[in-house]
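We emphasize that the prediction below concerns an isolated chain of 234 residues; any contacts that depend on oligomerization or on bound cofactors are therefore not represented. The input was used exactly as deposited, without trimming of termini.
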Amino acid sequence: MHPDLVTLLTLQDEDTAVATLESRVHALDRQTETLDRERSAAESAITRARETAEGEEKRRRELALKVQEHRALQDRHLAVLDSVRKDREAVAAMAQIEISRRVLTQEESELQTLTVRIADLHQAIELEMLLLDEITERQTSERAEIAKARAELDAQVAAARTQRDDTAKRIGRPLLQKYEHIRGREKTNALYALRGSACGRCNTAIPLQRRNVMAAGRSIEVCEGCGVLLYAAV
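Result of the prediction step, given as a token string:
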């Protein structure tokens, strides 16, 4: 048996354990991201509703000024009608009054519609704020649980990495560099046992001479097919 084989197999198991713990950390991070997105969506809804309400309130102010101006204009037209004596002037004044009356009626109707819409928007904002409060209250406990689990996992990851690094120090540097290069590339196991006369990962046939060297414990070989490290199981 190769002198570093047992230690290398131990290192691979420890790397797998670290990867498993890190995947659990990432899962917690994804839960936090989901909570963040939920809260962000609620906040964005409030922002959009407020911006819409502000825009409508600006329209209402502008329209209210127009209504005020057209009411004053209507009053002037009525005053003109009261002062005219000729039929022709009276007809012209009546026409002006009718035009301004239609414009004023339309604007007053729009102003009323805007007022109702703005009230609805403010009610919607209040509901969205209540929803945000509910989300915040619910997420407080969820985030606390995630933070607690994350802290525990971080401690486990740190301990597992320390143990893994201690194991790695007991492996010859050239072999360790090959192992870490392969594992970093493959993101999975780097070390496989021969399966009969072939690679235990990709089933590529291994020449007899290389198999004999591995069986004698003198070498851990690299598969020419998939590039992983190969050893002969005892």
